[in-house]
Write a structure and sequence with these properties.
14 strands, 332 residues, alpha/beta, three-stranded mixed beta sheet, 40% helix, Rossmann fold, 11 helices
């Protein structure tokens, strides 16, 4: 059944790709975004690529009345909540802003949903809730314990969501724990375009590849990993957003609260990712080893079995595909 989906934070990197995937799957899309972490033209590009329109509201998900009005005005039937501040390192420096923004936007959105009678909620969570995992790959049953304020906001919201789902049988709530998204839509039109200084590895590497910066800063080479640099599960953004569509469409047969990992199930170190970009671009990517960042961990790799089995979702794109599409988006 086609849904009318409100995507909070829908103009951002993952949000704009989610909007595209929803439209291509036959759903209608409404976006609320304050453009703190997004470029205004992203959704226009989504409309051009898909040939479909998006209802866009310039506003903050913390504004409960605005969110409720938007849902009522547009006949929204489900919400994908992505509005959040999202940088691990920055969250260590700005914990008050992170707790205030991320918790308030989630609670306000849930409150607005209840008032408008909308009961399907997909939450943009994060593998950071696992903290420093005891072993990898990580199943959803692993203990959680975030090591930085950003991850703690996701962990706290997950606790809230479980309580909300238990409070009223009308709620159907799913948390999707993202691992590390990279890449872009194959058109190159929709991409990762961080505002200001990039905080994630791939846009840092792309900045070096395009000459916008001299070198990539590699935070530590003394981790207990294959080459001493941090290992992450890099998932192509299109695989990630297809996981959102699968989670949304599974809700008709679900109730209560569910949690799924969205990851490739394969780890790649920082230096391996840099080498993969070099292979795709034919360029030499300069880097410098520097101190570890506060809140970082050695390794974080998903066990995606549950999403594979229960959502019928699997990744279809490789890390090399993510590198190629990221590079393509720089030249489109």
């Amino acid at each position: 059944m086609a849904e009318t989906v409100l995507v909070t934070g829908g103009a951002g990197y993952i949000g704009s790709h989610t909007a595209l995937a929803l439209l291509e799957a036959g759903h209608d899309v409404v976006v609320v975004d304050n453009y703190v972490n997004a470029k205004p033209g992203a959704l226009a590009d989504v409309e051009d690529v898909t040939g479909r329109s998006i209802t866009v509201v310039d506003g903050d998900a913390r504004d409960r009345k605005l969110v409720e009005h938007t849902m009522r005005e547009n006949g929204v039937t489900a919400v994908i909540h992505m509005a959040a501040l999202k940088a691990v390192g920055e969250s260590v420096e700005m914990p008050i802003e992170y707790y205030g923004n991320n918790l308030e936007s989630a609670i306000s959105t849930l409150d607005a949903m209840r008032a408008a009678g909308v009961w399907k909620f997909v939450f943009s969570s994060s593998a950071t809730v696992y903290g420093d995992p005891e072993s990898c790959p990580i199943p959803e049953t692993a203990s959680i314990g975030a090591t930085n304020p950003y991850g703690m906001t996701k962990q706290m919201i997950e606790v809230i969501l479980e309580d909300v789902a238990a409070s009223d049988e009308r709620w159907t709530i799913t948390s999707l724990r993202y691992f590390n998204p990279i890449g872009a839509h194959e058109s190159g039109r929709i991409s990762e375009a961080p505002i200001g200084k990039p905080n994630n590895l791939m846009p840092m590497v792309m900045d070096v590849a395009t000459g916008r910066r001299d070198k990539v800063m590699v935070f530590g080479n003394d981790w207990p990993t294959v080459d001493g640099t941090g290992v992450r599960d890099y998932i192509h953004v299109m695989d990630l957003v297809e996981g959102h569509v699968a989670a949304l469409e599974a809700m008709s047969a679900q109730s209560g609260y569910e949690v799924y990992n969205l990851g490739q199930g394969r780890g790649t170190s920082v230096l391996e990712l840099i080498k993969a970009v070099e292979d795709v671009t034919g360029l030499s990517i300069a880097y410098e080893i520097t101190d570890r960042r506060a809140g970082d961990i050695a390794e974080c790799v998903a066990d995606p079995t549950r999403a594979n089995t229960e959502l019928g979702w699997k990744t279809r794109r490789s890390t090399a595909d993510g590198c190629r599409d990221s590079w393509n988006s720089q030249n489109t």
